[in-house]
Structures are given as C-alpha cells and as structure tokens.
Amino acid sequence: MQTSDPTGRITRDQNGARLVFTRAYSVPVQQLWAALTEPEQTARWIGRWEGDPTSGTVSLHMSAEEGTPASPVRIDSCAAPYVLAVTTPAEGEPWTLRLVLSSTASGSSLTFTHEQAGSPDLGSIGPGWEFYLDRLAAVLDGGEVPEDFEKYYPVRASVYA
Predict the structure, then answer these.
(1) Residue closest to 127 by CA, chosen among 157, 84, 94, 95
(2) Between residues 66 and 80, the one the model is more confident about
(3) Rounded Cα gap, residues 57 and 18, in angstroms
C-alpha cells in the first residue's frame, strides 16, 4: 500500500530535527515486531541484517540501495515487542531511530522516529522513510511491495525540505 500523502511530522530544536511517522497495521503487535526484527522478514521490506544482536551491533544491507555497502547498526535499546532504538552512521551526523509499537483494537501501531543532530536533509530522508514504511505495510498486508523510489521522492521532497 502506497500512502498518497506524506505522513511524517517534523519538529526542530537547538539539537537538530525529529521526523515522526505513526502507522496503523491490521496485524497483532507480535507479528509487527517480527517484521521489524527478524532478518528473513526485514529482508522483504528494508534489507537483510546479519550479526549477533546480543553483541549490540548488526550489519544492515539495504534492499533498495543496490551497490551500497552494509551499514553498522548499533542497538541502543530493545524491549520486545514494544521498543527498538538503534543508531546508524550517516554522512554528517548519525541517525537515531526509535520504533515504538503498541497493540490496538484493530491490530497494532508503530511510531517511527528519526532523530538527527544538526540540519539534516529531510527533503530526501522523509520520502525515503515513507517508501520503506509503505514497503513494510505491503509485506504485512500481503500486497505488492513498492520498488520505485522515484515515485516517492519528487512528490514528497518539498514537503519535508
């Protein structure tokens, strides 16, 4: 399922920017957690990861970023099946990502927060997270997974810039 309009909310302060997405899913929270944390499932929407998460770091190979090397991902907090916080390097400042899941009457919800110090380029970051979150929704719904990022970028870039 591709969202028709940008869904992220932006806040800025002296420490940087925060981009928050809240999405609802018709699956139980445990199924959403599995899609966010199990390597066989993450490979279907964002990319495969490898390594031992108990070590505090894994490597992520982004599926739609063909040709780019794996990125180290530091696991900052993990409280299954409700909270996952990670930090990943990026050009400039590292990205801190916080995923908070909750059970709802109709399934589950995810609040996905991207935090970054300085003045990040949210014009490209926002559309990227829309793309990946729509891919997650498609996997959970059994639908067609979006493949073309270019359908996201031009439409949403100015909203997040």
Answers:
(1) 157
(2) 80
(3) 23
CB 127 within 8 A of CB 60: no
Structural contact between residues 44 and 61, judged by C-beta atoms closer than 8 angstroms: no
Q: Which residue has the higher pLDDT, 91 or 13?
A: 13
> Which residue bears the tokens 């997040």?
160
Please tell me the predicted confidence (pLDDT) of residue 1: 45
- The chain-wide mean pLDDT, for the chain, equals 90
Using alpha carbons, select from 148, 153, 134 the residue that is nearest to residue 46.
134
- The DSSP annotation for 17-37 comes to EEEEEEEEESS-HHHHHHHHH
Indicate the pairing of strand 47-50 with strand 57-62: antiparallel
At how many degrees (to 10) do helices 153-160 and 122-141 cross?
A: 130
Helix (H, G, I), strand (E, B) or coil at 45: coil
User: Which amino acid is residue 127, in one-letter code?
Assistant: P
pTM: 0.90
